[in-house]
Structures are given as C-alpha cells and as structure tokens.
Amino acid sequence: MRQKIFNFRINAYLSIAVALVLLIFLHWVGVLKPIEDILIYAIKPVEKLTYRLGLDIFVNQNTLTKEQLDTENAELNDKLSDALIENARLRSLVTKSETLQKELDFLNQKSYNAISTQIIGKPSDTTAQIYLLDKGEKDGVKVGLPVIYLDGILVGKIVGVENSVAQLLLINDSQSAVGAQIQNEASSPGIIVGKLGLALEMQFIPQTETVAKGQIVVTSGLEENIPPGLVIGQIDEVSNKTEELFQTATIESPVPLERLDVLSIIIP
Amino acid sequence: MLRNSALLLTILILDIIQASFINLAGENVAYLNILIIFLVFLVFYLETVPMLWFAFLTGAITELFSFYPFGIVTAIVVTSAIFLSFLFKNFLTNRSLYTFLLLTAAGTIIYNLLIFISSYILYWFEDAGISIVSGNKFWIGLLWQLIINVIVALVLFLIARIITRRFSIIKTK
C-alpha cells in the first residue's frame, strides 16, 4: 500500500504555495494581463461611482459651523488682499522677466497635452498618499508625469502605471520631492517635500535669498516631464536660522489635497 | 458552485468598497480594514482547505488595488489566514462572539505587522515607491485599526447571528 508522503493539510499548504508562485510567475510573464485588464475594466465604473458616493457622504459630514465659516471668511479676505498686492508687484516683474521667459520658451520647445483623469480608489496596504487613477499605459500615461488640479496646480506625480490604471503619489507624501522656485526677484530655488501627508515644505532655499510669506511657489522645470510654472502653493511660514546652511519654508497648497476628484495628467 | 460564486463576488465587492470608499473616508473611518474581518468569517465558516483557497483568491483580487509588487499582498493575506486558522483550531474552543473578536484583533495585528515588515524589506531592496511608516504613526494607526475593526466585527457578527444559526456556540474540538 502506498504511503502518503505528506498528510492532507500539508498537501493543502504546499498547493497554496505552488499556486502563489505560479500566480506571480504568470503575472510577470504577462499571461494574466488580459484577465487583469478585463477585471479592472469591469471594476472601474463601479469604483468611480463608489468614490463619488464616498466623496458626497464624507465631504458633507465635514461641513463647517457658522463660527468656523466666519473665521475662514476673514482669513480668505486677508489672503485676497495679500494676493492683490502680490499681483501688482508681479506685474512689475513681468517686464524684467520677459527676456528670461523668452529663453525659457526657447528651451521648452516641446508643447504638452493634458488628459483628464479621475481618482477611483486608494490601496489599503500602504499609508503613503497614493491614489489610483482611471487612466493607464494605453492612454499614454508614464511614470514621472505631473498631475494637476484646476488651472495648473501641481498635486502629485505618477509613480506606477498598469495598462488602464495609474498610481498617483500626492505632493504632500513623505516620498515626494519636486524641484521648485519661488516667484520672488531672485527666483529662489528649492525642493518641495511632503511631510507625512499633512503639509508641504520647501527645503534647500539659499540663506542669501529673501523669502517672504505669501510668495507663490511654482515648479522649476528642472525635472524631466514636469514643465516649469505649475503652481504648487504659497509660502506660509519661513524658517531662517543663521546656524543652518539653508532656509526652509512651509508651503500651503491652494487646493484640499485629501478631497481631489477630477485631475489632469500632463503628457509631454 | 453557487456558494463559491457568491463568495467570489463578495470578495470583489469588498475590495471595491475598501479601495474606493473606506480608504478615502476622512478621520478614523479610513482605518477600517474590512478584508481582515472577511478573513475571520472565512476561518469561522469554512473548513481549512477551502478557507485557504478563498484567502488566496482574496489576496489575488486585492493585488489589483495594491501598490506593492505583485504577489506580496496575496502572500500576506494567505499567511494571515493560516495564522488565524492555527489560532482558532488550537487555542480557541468555540465559535462565540469573543472568539470572533479575538481573531479579528489577532488578524489585524498580524496583517499590519506583515505589511510593515514587507515595506522594510522592499525598501532595503531599493524599491523607490515604497515608503516606510515611522514608528509612532504605525503604532497609532494599528491601534485605531484594532478599535475600528473590532467594533465593525462586533456589529457584523451580531447581524450574521441573526441571519444564520451557524455562529451559535459550537465546540471546535
């Protein structure tokens, strides 16, 4: 009588292990790709509906009280006044920067297009600020492309692409780093880094540069695929310690990064 | 056949709800991980072999929504299921509410620890897309997830008990 080498339970565990290895192998050689694409294609409309439902429910729950609205209104009025003053000052800078702008235009010969995309979900196995978008490789999306909201406000970059979905890393994630410059007289350079999904900070601003609250920060265009001039935010606070080599500034994004919906991916 | 199809559809629906609804909720609701509670239901409801295969399918479908390299999440889900099954069969004596809640807590801890360990391993293999959670944030998040998962598991268990008599106290040994 033939003896069993392993008992029933160990056979089951071995079968699962073999199935797992096979699953990974079939994925990497591309055999599972049609099945994955079909599943994602079937799921995407449901994900969009579910996301919209969640947005309606959870955004409605986050309504402000009257007192909070009054406070926010007062703050916005102050910001509007500051923005008008800044606008006037920037107009005077336009003339000085025209020559520089022409040089930049000459360097940026390739024009870019933008495709609209929508957030459909968020992986639950990571605490990173990563969202799933409904456009993928077949739509021309590649890793490293910038993602904007409204009129050119940078909200993140593409960090992963499948055939019909992509992964967006928000600009306020700790893994995010974007080359930027401040719209001041010196066009002070720096790096915008995320702080645990809660805030933005501009680092490596030279000590010799004059940086002030309210100045607008834009992309520097030094990174591949990210054009210059995309708005990142406004300086909220400046940290200028003489014992340190560089200044840092806290940046406030003009959009609520945790409540994004329809976005645009810039295709170079 | 009908039961298997229903379970498969349930896995798909739960994954969609988790990725597109729960994970995007504000404040502490986003800590809820409904897939762990589903794993506990599998351990309670199914025998070992079908439970393992459905855990495998749960992991495989969750891969579609995952940021990790393909296979990691499936391995973590299956390992968590094996651990829960071991705990259930060897240390817990009945299918009571307390057993269910204990398994939910244990499943939450083991799942999150495996994710934590995987993120470190992948980080050291220079997978630039993986971020390591800093100490305090991980433990605070785990605590919140424990609380939320146990509360939701309690509610779901009571609902399941009303619907079916399978969750009455039955000795497993």
Automatic annotation (TrEMBL), chain A:
InterPro entries: Cell/Rod_1, Cell/Rod_MreC_2, MreC, MreC_beta-barrel_core. Residues 66-110 form a coiled coil. GO terms for biological process: regulation of cell shape. It comes from the Bacteria. Keywords: Cell shape, Coiled coil, Membrane, Transmembrane, Transmembrane helix. The chain crosses the membrane at residues 12-30. This is Cell shape-determining protein MreC. Residues 119-266 form the Rod shape-determining protein MreC beta-barrel core domain. Belongs to the MreC family. The gene is mreC. Pfam families: MreC. One of its GO terms (cellular component) is plasma membrane. Involved in formation and maintenance of cell shape.
UniProtKB/TrEMBL annotation, chain B:
Keywords: Membrane, Transmembrane, Transmembrane helix. It comes from the Bacteria. The chain crosses the membrane at residues 6-25, 32-55, 67-88, 100-122, 142-163. This is Rod shape-determining protein MreD.
